[in-house]
Amino acid sequence: MAGGAAVVFTGLTAVPAGAAEGGVSFTRVKVNSGKPIVIGVKEEVEVPASGRMTTELTFKGVPMVHPYRGKLGKGEELWSALGGGDPEVVDPVKGVYDFAVAFSIHPRHAGLKNKDAGTWKTCARISLAGGGHDVDDENLPLQVKRATRLTVNASPEPVTKGKTLTVTGTVTRADWDKHTYQGYAGRTVSLQFRPAGASSYKTVKKARSNSKGALKTMVKATGTGTWRWTYHGNSTSGARSSSGDHVAVK
Fold first, then answer.
1. Total domains, the chain
2. Residues sharing a CB contact under 8 Å with residue 38, sequence separation 6 or more, in sequence order
């Protein structure tokens, strides 16, 4: 993490020891632009955060913002590394600072399990001179979700206008317990089409994945364009679209 000191842990971390003190307030806290935090099985995810800190106390380092659950100051925290640049002084007399920081989550280093998907809370913390710290709940729910993936194949290619086009694919979801993607059964997935020359996709019909996450449906070929599958996500799984499969109609 650029700027500031990055602290790395290798599991769902316990809150650091040290007396929690008052005298610091955090406002305007935003995490990941309000979007869910979607995590796969291999790639580290870096999540931006920002806010305003007001304090007349002497602090050290940079503010930290990250997910937690349980009791504030005594529960679990979800992050692999924390970091950011020095806070920007807004009002030196009143002790107002704006900050931009980030935390990262590595699906292996963070010790994630499938049961961890869902709603977490947000805390902000700053270390104070003398060894104490101030930590506050920000009343900001964070959605932590398992990543999904989709594939698509439309055939035959090319196809005669008016003939049947068979579109297949798979929808899989990150398994944090096994560190792999598994077929996601029983999902309703949208088949979408973008005509040649158009800029956006429209849903043509929907299909449900089988026990192995496989998708299959048939449509009439009406014109040249690109087909894809889109899964819109749920409370524990991220939304995702497949790449497109371009089919010429003759």
1. 2
2. 45, 145, 146, 147, 238
**Is residue 20 within 8 Å of residue 133, measured between CB atoms?**
yes
The closest alpha carbon to 113, from 179, 161, 171, belongs to 179
The pLDDT-based confidence of 21 (bands split at 50, 70, 90) is low
pLDDT value of residue 73:
81
CA 14 vs. chain centroid, Å, equals: 22
Q: In this structure, are 126 and 26 located in the same domain? A: yes
Beta bridge partners of 160: none
**Domain extent at residue 30:** 7-145
Q: Kindly report the CATH number assigned to the domain that includes residue 166.
A: 2.60.40.730
Q: Is the per-residue pLDDT at 18 higher than 70? A: no
Tokens of 196: 């040649």
Could you tell me the two tokens for 78?
């979800």
For 192, the enclosing helix (H) or strand (E) is strand 188-195
Q: Which residue do the tokens 């000191």 mark?
A: 5
Question: 141 and 155, same structural domain?
Answer: no
Provide φ and ψ at 91, rounded to 5°. Answer: -145, 100
Q: What is the pTM of this model?
A: 0.88
What 3-state DSSP class applies to 128?
Answer: strand
Q: Decide: 54 and 90 in contact? Cβ < 8 Å.
A: no
Say which range, 11-20, 87-96, 99-108, 213-222, has the weakest mean pLDDT.
11-20
| Closest C-alpha to 240, from 146, 150, 144, 143 | 150
